[in-house]
Design a protein that fits this description.
The chain is of the alpha+beta class. Helices cover 53% and strands 18% of the residues. The chain has 4 helices and 6 strands, in the order H-E-E-E-E-E-E-H-H-H. The strands form 2 sheets. The protein has a 3-stranded antiparallel sheet with strand order 1-5-4, with helices on both faces.
Length: 182
Amino acid sequence: MKTILFFCSLFCTFQTIAQTKSNTDTIYWSPCYKLKFEDFKQTLDSLSDFDAISSITIDYDITQQNLGRITAVKVFCFFNRSNSKTKGMDSSLLIHEQIHFDIAELYSRKLREIFSQNLKLKKTLSLQEAQAIYSKIKKNYKKISEQYDFETDFSKDIEDQLQWNKKIRADLLTLSPYRYNL
């Protein structure tokens, strides 16, 4: 058991180092890294309706093609420091923004799962098929993010926030076979 914990800790350390060295403005999602207030490089205007805005991206790269058909895809999820803003340093706000990042990773995993299933079944995808899959996942991601903000009242409803934290953690665990390793 100690050996497993050591290797998990070592893996997280190397992954975090690799992630921060590759691009200091980009944080790729990792179970080992939690957002910090220093990751929000901009300050929101005090008149803003929001306390924080996280710039999070879900995207994909076509890594292999054969005769114009896609044979492999890489999906990634990252937080952009320079476009992320906050006007406060409340720990519940930071947890709320972390769950937004976790939700993005969850939908990245769903995208990886669907791409994987389609490529196993069909062996290849057209660019249009890949884009349709991506668009559907992005639409669902946006919808769940808005539901999350509404139900938690942007982190102010502590009980609902705790329920969402548990739900997203459980969903990430369920889709752990589709986690991306840097």
